[in-house]
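Title: Comparing notes on inverse folding

I've been comparing how different people in this forum approach sequence design from structure. To keep things fair, I'm posting one structure and asking everyone to reply with a full sequence. Here's the target:
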């Protein structure tokens, strides 16, 4: 089947899926969850094949960690699906209602985007999260995972397709792409595909934007920061920094750079180094950092680095304004956290740091669709389209205006026989 035929089929199915009710979609989600549990041995076997092949191909350790899809990961995605089922259906919600005139009522109502093309990295759990979010939000989806996960992705896609067909969802709503040529063809299909979501480096996202007329919701690098202010609880700050860096290093919301106020650096950095030494974290520091603790001297490139590994860049700064300037210069707009007891400083940080997620006294690892209560996420948008930060159900719907009249014509308003009232209503769309 050609890429064009595949896109046409998904487009046709997406139109049918857009009208599916919440009960049908939730029944299909429950069927997916059960099918994943029923077929876990087959999934794990396929994943082992991917892991063995990738090890032989010398895939970097951070990517191997993302690639692993064991029983615990299967339980995690099943829990995510259960959470998704319990969320309100995002389709058909009335966002605005206005009486334009007597008997002429305007409604702004949420609806699916249509067909979404998602290109993601080596994490097989992303395939489950993305497809189930698209299903719940009524969107058709074309999925392209990393080639290193091809066996796992094939099994997962087959399970999801069979489960949703069994539940009564229109067939062809989801399709798996497997080659780079498929992606290049997909980027030309703006008549069938409404949105592309690439998950990867800034260069990769830029490539997608430069080679497609389809709107792109970018999920780029996760260059996340923690800033330790002079007015902070040192024990709390150590705990948060260690969690931000080491709770799971191979993810986009792990901290990559630590900024420390100059007044607290002499006392704080040695304590932090001791804690990070216990996690085998390599510290890469500025000159002031290296004068306080042993660290590898940092270069300009280190402030731009997404290590996804047990490495952390450390810079001593003069204060809050330098920290904000550093983050806005070198960060990727993902997630940044301030650790301070000063409420005014926290407010200034959260106001002026230009990122999709800004935190006060908590780990950057909280930047996640499941932890936010979104069920899961298709990615974390570092751009400024209609959705920013973790993109869950609300980020996968758009809206349409629905106008209900009773013989109303514009001529009556042009000649002033009738006049608009434009009264705001608190009324749900009635159809």
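Reply #1:
Here's my take.
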């Amino acid at each position: 089947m050609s890429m064009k035929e595949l896109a046409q089929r998904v487009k046709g199915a997406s139109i049918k899926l857009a009208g599916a009710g919440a009960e049908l979609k939730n029944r299909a989600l429950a069927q997916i969850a059960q099918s994943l549990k029923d077929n876990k041995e087959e999934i794990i076997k396929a994943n082992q094949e991917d892991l063995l092949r990738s090890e032989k191909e010398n895939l970097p350790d951070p990517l191997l960690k993302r690639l692993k899809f064991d029983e615990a990961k299967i339980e995690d995605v099943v829990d995510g699906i259960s959470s998704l089922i319990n969320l309100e259906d995002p389709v058909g919600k009335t966002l605005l209602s206005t009486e334009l005139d007597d008997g002429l009522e305007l409604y702004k109502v949420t609806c699916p985007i249509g067909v979404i093309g998602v290109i993601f990295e080596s994490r097989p759990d992303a395939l489950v999260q993305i497809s189930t979010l698209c299903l719940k939000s009524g969107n058709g989806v074309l999925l392209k995972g990393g080639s290193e996960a091809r066996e796992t992705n094939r099994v997962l896609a087959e399970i999801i397709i069979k489960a949703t067909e069994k539940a009564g969802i229109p067939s062809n709503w989801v399709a798996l792409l497997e080659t780079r040529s498929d992606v290049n063809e997909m980027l030309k299909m703006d008549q069938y595909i409404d949105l592309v979501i690439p998950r990867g480096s800034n260069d990769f996202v830029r490539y997608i934007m430069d080679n497609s007329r389809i709107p792109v919701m970018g999920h780029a690098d996760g260059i996340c920061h923690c800033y330790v202010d002079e007015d902070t609880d040192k024990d709390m700050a150590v705990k948060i920094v260690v969690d931000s860096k080491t709770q799971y290093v191979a993810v986009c919301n792990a901290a990559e750079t630590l900024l420390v106020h100059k007044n607290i650096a002499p006392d704080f950095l040695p304590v932090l180094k001791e804690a990070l030494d216990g996690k085998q974290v390599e510290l890469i520091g500025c000159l002031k950092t290296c004068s306080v603790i042993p660290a590898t001297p940092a270069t300009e490139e280190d402030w731009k680095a997404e290590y996804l590994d047990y490495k952390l860049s450390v810079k001593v700064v003069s204060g809050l304004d330098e920290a904000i300037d550093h983050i806005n210069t070198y960060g990727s707009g993902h997630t940044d956290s301030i650790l301070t007891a000063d409420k005014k400083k926290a407010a200034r940080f959260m106001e002026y740091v230009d990122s999709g997620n800004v935190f006060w006294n908590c780990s950057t690892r909280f930047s996640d669709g499941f932890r936010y209560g979104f069920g899961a996420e298709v990615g974390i948008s570092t751009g400024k389209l209609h959705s920013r930060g973790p993109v869950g159900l609300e980020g996968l719907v758009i809206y349409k205006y629905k106008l209900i009249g009773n013989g109303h014509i514009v001529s009556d308003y042009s000649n002033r026989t009738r006049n608009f009232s434009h009264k705001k209503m608190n009324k749900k769309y009635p159809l």
